Every structure is written in structure tokens, then in C-alpha cells.
Amino acid sequence: MALYMVVHNLPGATTQAVAEAHMKDLQTQDKHGVSYLRYWVNEEEGKIFCLVEAPNAEAANTVHREA
């Protein structure tokens, strides 16, 4: 499987909100063969970075959409 870095530009996103969203990703990932490994939040810049192992980029994005 390949590693992907998903970058989100979400001004106003808080560390707490991202943690809650990440938990939803973890609950959804298995049915798409995806493994979210780690994430980083830069509240000041409004950026979130997600490191994910997935069969393809679309599978990684599908988990985010469904979660």
C-alpha cells in the first residue's frame, strides 16, 4: 500500500474538532482498506495534515467524506 499526505485548508478548525473527526475516520477506515496513521494540526494557519496508508488516494478521501 502507498502512503499519502492529505492536506486540508480549514481556517478556524480547532485541535479538538480535528481529534473528533479523526476518531470518525478510524471508525470508517477498515471498510475501505485504509489506515489513518497520524495527523497534525496547525490552528494558526488553518491547516490539517493526515498521513494515511491506502490502496489509492480516492479510498483515503472516501473515508473522510463518509466519516
List keywords for this structure.
67 residues; alpha+beta; 2 helices; single chain
Commentary on this structure:
By secondary structure, the protein is an alpha+beta fold. Helix content is 36%, strand content 36%. It has helices at 15-28, 57-66, and strands at 2-9, 35-42, 47-54. It has a three-stranded antiparallel beta sheet. Strand 2 (35-42) and strand 3 (47-54) form a beta hairpin. The mean pLDDT is 95.
Strand portion: 35-45%
Helix content: 25-40%
Overall structural class, as computed from helix and strand content, comes to alpha+beta
Mean pLDDT: 95
Radius of gyration: 11 Å
Give the uncertain stretches in residue-range form: none
The biggest beta sheet is recorded as: 3 strands, antiparallel
Order of helices and strands: EHEEH
Strand-helix topology:
Layout: E1 2-9, H1 15-28, E2 35-42, E3 47-54, H2 57-66
Could you give a quick summary of the protein structure above?
The chain is of the alpha+beta class and about 70 residues long. About 35% of the residues lie in helices and about 35% in strands.
